[in-house]
Amino acid sequence: MSDNEQRVIFVFPGQGSQYTGIGSDLCAEFASARQVYEQASDVLGYDMAKLSSENPDDQINLTRFTQPVLLTHHIACLTVYRELAADPLIPAAAAGHSLGEYSALVAANALSFEDALRLVAKRGELMGTYGEGEMAALTVDLETARPLADKHFCGIAGLNLPDQTVVGGAGADLDALAAEMEQLMPTKRAVRLKTEGAFHTYYMVEAARRFRESLAEATFAPAELKVLSNYTGGFHEDNAESIKSRLFFQLFHPVNWVGCLQSALDDGITLFVEFGGGIGTGEGPSEKRPNLEGIIKKYTRRSKPKPDYLPAINLETIRAAAGITAD
């Protein structure tokens, strides 16, 4: 299948894919990337490039900063890719995991970069201020996780894979859930996540109530691409008020990433391209791995035809995605 025949979706990761030095490789070589970071600085009132590169006082891991840091990196990666590629891929759709949904809306020109920055900065501030609890990823399906979560006053926070369900709750409640899970299912795991709260659960209701005011003030344009909704797992309606309501509910409902992936496949997507973020213990952009790659490949491995995957998360992978080979 040629590039022209491919049906492409651009995807953007969420929190957990931030790291010290994020974007520094792009800013060192591309004026276009520096301009994206300067725009972010002008909108937010602090030096985004310095925060991302140097991470003073570990601020990058505070939700109020994490979210604009990642949004900026997503858009910088996308901008550099489009600059480098002689024949850039034209997506049919866009999607993002949690915070990444805002980047998807920017990619679809439904939301300006500046307005998205204001929204995610407020979103992160409210989630950090009013959110409570912690999160854990369980290596079980939703049907197994839900009764355990209910019993221990935890909420379902994310459906990453059919056999990976994220839950959120008070620390003591998650401890009790993990202990019972180990007793009942010793081969399964409950992996604690580093977050400032039980995101996408009832612990975020107050943050969502306050965030509604910011959503009401934001301007959304008709999307030029189909954009997937974390809340429904399907595509957003082409209606600004509907998109706002879905983003409101997204804050305290599970991220239905399984639904999003299935909707993408049902729509005939043949290529997933991931922009921004990075995970792994290596230092610096060049040593990071894509955040969503494993989930996407695992979910789609039995699909026929099996879709392709392409990362564009740092200078090396963006060059490769743009068709530029190393000397």
Automatic annotation (TrEMBL):
InterPro entries from the UniProt entry: Ac_transferase_dom_sf, Acyl_transferase_dom, Acyl_Trfase/lysoPLipase, Mal-CoA-ACP_Trans/PKS_FabD, Malonyl_CoA-ACP_transAc, Malonyl_transacylase_ACP-bd
Pfam families: Acyl_transf_1 (PF00698)
Protein EC: 2.3.1.39
GO terms classed as biological process: fatty acid biosynthetic process
UniProt-recorded Gene Ontology molecular function terms: [acyl-carrier-protein] S-malonyltransferase activity
UniProt KW Secreted keyword: no
SUPFAM superfamilies: FabD/lysophospholipase-like, Probable ACP-binding domain of malonyl-CoA ACP transacylase
Enzyme active site: 98, 200
Chain ranges of the Malonyl-CoA:ACP transacylase (MAT) domain: 11-291
Keywords linked to the UniProt accession: Acyltransferase, Transferase
Top-level taxon: Bacteria
Top enzyme class: transferase
Substrates-to-products reaction catalysed: holo-[ACP] + malonyl-CoA = malonyl-[ACP] + CoA
Recorded family membership: Belongs to the fabD family.
Protein name: Malonyl CoA-acyl carrier protein transacylase
Organism this protein belongs to: Sedimenticola selenatireducens
